[in-house]
Amino acid sequence: MIYAKSLSLILFNLFLVYTFNSEKKEEPPVTYSKNIRPIISQYCLNCHAGKRPKSKLDLSTYENLKKAIENKNLLLRINNKKRPMPKGGLMPLEKRKLIEKWVNQEFKK
Ligand code: HEC
Question: pTM surpassing 0.85?
């Protein structure tokens, strides 16, 4: 009886370790709605949205943002110290990395 009890305890612990580890390894994918839109709206939309967006570039929708990344060197600009976007200075590295990750994961909605 005692043996069976400790065996089940060991199995239970293995189960805990396993689920904990696999949760840690699998990061959720970066998505537009959860991760990217909040960054863009915080750092870009006061200039790149509304009736007359700067440089005629409206970044307020998923499609527009994707197009700007594909056609307007957006990733280069957000990492360019000399001509940064936003104009005031580069965003924190972790935000820029997140946007790059989103692009590499193929623009998940
Ligand atoms: C304070 C206003 C302001 C903010 C905030 C701002 N921009 Fe801009 N953006 C401009 C202006 C003005 C231009 C045109 C002049 C230039 O290219 O430097 C521009 C140009 C750009 C261009 C080049 C467009 C083209 O037609 O080649 C991109 C890409 C861009 N911005 C992306 C962004 C992104 C992404 C953010 C947020 C991370 C951002 N901008 C934040 C004012 C802003």
Answer: no
